[in-house]
Amino acid sequence: MGLIGKLICQTSIKTDGDVFHEICSSRLHHVHTMSPENIHSCDLHEGEFGKVGSIFYLNYNIDGKQMVAKERVEAIDEEQKQVTYKVIEGELLKSFKIFVVTVHVDTSGVDNLVTWSFDYEKVDESIKDPTEYLDFVLRINKDIETHHLPK
Protein backbone atom coordinates (compact mmCIF):
# COMPACT_ATOMS: atom_id res chain seq x y z
CA MET A 1 0.00 0.00 0.00
CA GLY A 2 1.47 3.34 -1.03
CA LEU A 3 1.37 6.60 0.83
CA ILE A 4 0.92 8.71 -2.32
CA GLY A 5 -2.38 8.40 -4.12
CA LYS A 6 -4.75 9.91 -6.62
CA LEU A 7 -8.52 9.57 -6.90
CA ILE A 8 -10.48 10.72 -9.96
CA CYS A 9 -14.17 10.91 -10.75
CA GLN A 10 -15.91 12.25 -13.82
CA THR A 11 -19.55 13.05 -14.41
CA SER A 12 -21.59 14.78 -17.05
CA ILE A 13 -23.65 17.84 -16.18
CA LYS A 14 -26.70 19.27 -17.91
CA THR A 15 -25.90 22.84 -16.96
CA ASP A 16 -23.59 25.22 -18.78
CA GLY A 17 -19.97 24.13 -18.33
CA ASP A 18 -18.70 27.70 -18.46
CA VAL A 19 -20.97 28.63 -15.56
CA PHE A 20 -19.81 25.58 -13.59
CA HIS A 21 -16.17 26.57 -14.14
CA GLU A 22 -16.91 30.17 -13.14
CA ILE A 23 -18.45 28.94 -9.88
CA CYS A 24 -15.38 26.81 -9.12
CA SER A 25 -12.88 29.49 -10.09
CA SER A 26 -14.34 32.77 -8.85
CA ARG A 27 -17.70 32.23 -7.13
CA LEU A 28 -16.89 29.58 -4.52
CA HIS A 29 -18.50 31.76 -1.88
CA HIS A 30 -21.87 31.10 -3.58
CA VAL A 31 -21.73 27.30 -3.37
CA HIS A 32 -23.14 27.16 0.16
CA THR A 33 -26.43 28.58 -1.17
CA MET A 34 -26.55 25.87 -3.87
CA SER A 35 -25.40 22.95 -1.70
CA PRO A 36 -26.17 23.91 1.92
CA GLU A 37 -26.11 20.34 3.24
CA ASN A 38 -22.51 19.93 2.05
CA ILE A 39 -20.95 23.40 2.16
CA HIS A 40 -21.79 25.68 5.07
CA SER A 41 -19.59 28.63 4.16
CA CYS A 42 -16.65 29.71 2.08
CA ASP A 43 -14.97 32.81 3.48
CA LEU A 44 -12.12 34.70 1.88
CA HIS A 45 -9.07 34.97 4.13
CA GLU A 46 -6.55 36.58 1.79
CA GLY A 47 -6.54 37.84 -1.79
CA GLU A 48 -9.56 37.88 -4.07
CA PHE A 49 -11.91 35.15 -5.26
CA GLY A 50 -10.91 34.14 -8.77
CA LYS A 51 -7.22 34.93 -8.28
CA VAL A 52 -4.30 32.52 -7.94
CA GLY A 53 -2.77 32.70 -4.47
CA SER A 54 -6.05 33.56 -2.78
CA ILE A 55 -6.76 31.78 0.48
CA PHE A 56 -10.19 30.83 1.78
CA TYR A 57 -11.77 28.91 4.63
CA LEU A 58 -14.22 26.18 3.67
CA ASN A 59 -16.69 24.89 6.26
CA TYR A 60 -18.19 21.65 5.04
CA ASN A 61 -19.88 18.42 6.04
CA ILE A 62 -18.33 15.03 5.23
CA ASP A 63 -20.35 11.99 6.27
CA GLY A 64 -22.13 13.99 8.98
CA LYS A 65 -18.89 15.42 10.40
CA GLN A 66 -18.33 19.18 10.37
CA MET A 67 -14.94 20.00 8.87
CA VAL A 68 -12.92 23.13 8.17
CA ALA A 69 -10.18 23.53 5.61
CA LYS A 70 -8.01 26.49 4.76
CA GLU A 71 -7.21 26.29 1.05
CA ARG A 72 -5.09 28.21 -1.41
CA VAL A 73 -5.90 28.59 -5.09
CA GLU A 74 -2.83 27.11 -6.76
CA ALA A 75 -3.82 27.52 -10.42
CA ILE A 76 -6.65 28.73 -12.63
CA ASP A 77 -6.57 27.88 -16.32
CA GLU A 78 -9.42 29.72 -18.03
CA GLU A 79 -8.71 28.19 -21.45
CA GLN A 80 -8.76 24.61 -20.12
CA LYS A 81 -11.46 25.44 -17.52
CA GLN A 82 -9.40 23.97 -14.71
CA VAL A 83 -8.85 25.08 -11.11
CA THR A 84 -6.46 23.62 -8.53
CA TYR A 85 -6.70 24.13 -4.77
CA LYS A 86 -4.29 23.00 -2.06
CA VAL A 87 -5.38 22.36 1.52
CA ILE A 88 -2.95 24.26 3.77
CA GLU A 89 -4.68 23.86 7.18
CA GLY A 90 -7.48 21.85 8.73
CA GLU A 91 -8.52 18.43 10.01
CA LEU A 92 -7.72 16.82 6.68
CA LEU A 93 -4.01 17.45 7.25
CA LYS A 94 -4.09 15.23 10.35
CA SER A 95 -4.37 12.28 7.93
CA PHE A 96 -2.68 13.68 4.83
CA LYS A 97 0.63 15.51 4.44
CA ILE A 98 -0.55 16.84 1.06
CA PHE A 99 -4.08 17.19 -0.28
CA VAL A 100 -4.63 18.89 -3.64
CA VAL A 101 -8.00 19.17 -5.40
CA THR A 102 -8.36 19.84 -9.12
CA VAL A 103 -11.63 20.41 -10.96
CA HIS A 104 -11.72 20.43 -14.75
CA VAL A 105 -14.73 21.18 -16.94
CA ASP A 106 -14.68 19.86 -20.51
CA THR A 107 -17.16 21.63 -22.78
CA SER A 108 -15.80 20.30 -26.08
CA GLY A 109 -18.18 17.35 -26.51
CA VAL A 110 -21.92 16.86 -26.68
CA ASP A 111 -22.07 16.72 -22.87
CA ASN A 112 -20.25 18.94 -20.41
CA LEU A 113 -17.97 16.74 -18.31
CA VAL A 114 -16.66 17.62 -14.86
CA THR A 115 -13.58 15.78 -13.63
CA TRP A 116 -12.49 16.01 -10.01
CA SER A 117 -9.12 14.69 -8.92
CA PHE A 118 -7.54 14.43 -5.50
CA ASP A 119 -3.78 14.10 -5.19
CA TYR A 120 -2.66 13.23 -1.69
CA GLU A 121 0.03 11.80 0.52
CA LYS A 122 -1.05 9.90 3.63
CA VAL A 123 0.74 10.48 6.93
CA ASP A 124 1.06 6.70 7.30
CA GLU A 125 -0.19 3.45 5.77
CA SER A 126 -3.04 3.03 8.27
CA ILE A 127 -4.95 5.95 6.67
CA LYS A 128 -7.62 4.88 4.18
CA ASP A 129 -7.97 6.50 0.78
CA PRO A 130 -10.31 9.55 0.94
CA THR A 131 -13.07 8.03 -1.20
CA GLU A 132 -15.77 9.86 0.75
CA TYR A 133 -14.57 13.04 -0.98
CA LEU A 134 -15.59 11.60 -4.36
CA ASP A 135 -19.16 11.19 -3.09
CA PHE A 136 -18.95 14.66 -1.56
CA VAL A 137 -18.03 16.42 -4.83
CA LEU A 138 -20.60 14.41 -6.79
CA ARG A 139 -23.31 15.62 -4.38
CA ILE A 140 -22.10 19.19 -4.84
CA ASN A 141 -22.11 18.76 -8.65
CA LYS A 142 -25.70 17.58 -8.51
CA ASP A 143 -26.74 20.49 -6.26
CA ILE A 144 -25.06 23.08 -8.51
CA GLU A 145 -26.68 21.48 -11.54
CA THR A 146 -30.14 21.45 -9.90
CA HIS A 147 -29.71 25.08 -8.86
CA HIS A 148 -28.96 26.16 -12.44
CA LEU A 149 -31.51 24.06 -14.34
CA PRO A 150 -34.62 25.90 -15.52
CA LYS A 151 -37.51 25.46 -13.13
From TrEMBL:
Domain Bet v I/Major latex protein: 2-151
Superkingdom, natural source: Eukaryota
SUPFAM superfamilies: Bet v1-like (SSF55961)
GO biological process terms, semicolon-separated: defense response
Protein name: Kirola like
Classification of source organism: Eukaryota, Viridiplantae, Streptophyta, Embryophyta, Tracheophyta
